[in-house]
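SUBJECT: A protein chain and its fold
Encoding: whole-number codes for local backbone shapes
Chain under study, with its fold:
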Amino acid sequence: MVKDAAEQQKNYHENYVKQPRGMKVRDFVTRNHHLNAYYPYLLCMADTDGAPDDMPREDTKLTEMRLSQVVLRAQTQQVQDGWYAIHGSKIPTDVNQLRDELDPINVQVQRRLKQDQLNRKNQDSVHGSSSDKKNGTVRFMSGAREKTDTGRIPRKPKGNGNKGDEQKRHCNLCAQFGGNHSTHNTSVCRRWTKEGKQQAGWKQQRPNGNGKRDFAASLEKQEKEIHALKKLLKKKHKKRKRAYQYASDSSSDEESK
């Protein structure tokens, strides 16, 4: 345990503790009473060597007023505003009394939040058109994007949304001087100029046949290199074998002498 365990625990308890969402105020107050009972068992800086005699000890329980401030600050801003709207600048000094005052306010705030969420949901569902409802797909507006009840974003319709209204592409230059004229329009043609000359940045794509021949040639070259490497490894293995046999024969001759 660290020497300033009590100081660290009190700093966290008084400044960072928040009531969990969905927890009742009564249960939260009970939990704070349990935490407050642990302070006498923690180490504090007053017990360290060299600490001044008049140093206040922090291994004591929080007073009712400080514990009430902890409970009030742990509430959401809506609950705090509701309590101050009723009691004004009153300073809470009794935890149990504060619990009884916060409980109905918390219930009312939660009810209001649920009602606002339901109203927003109903308002968003109004954006769905009658035709979409007939087809079983109601659209909901979520920010700037439109989603269906299945979670998918519908595709943007081409043209006016009717079948056969898609705008056809046609390039007069490619139709006149050569090339695929159905992939783009004349205004964005990057191959031909109006005089029938190829543009400087145009590069003719290589046909698939050349690519296949290049791949076959590189594969054949790679097979030749692998075959030559195997021959080289065999030669090195034979040299090592001969050297080993020569060394073993010379050692046996020396032993016979």
About this structure: Helices lie at 5-15, 25-36, 64-73, 77-87, 95-125, 130-135, 172-177, 208-256.
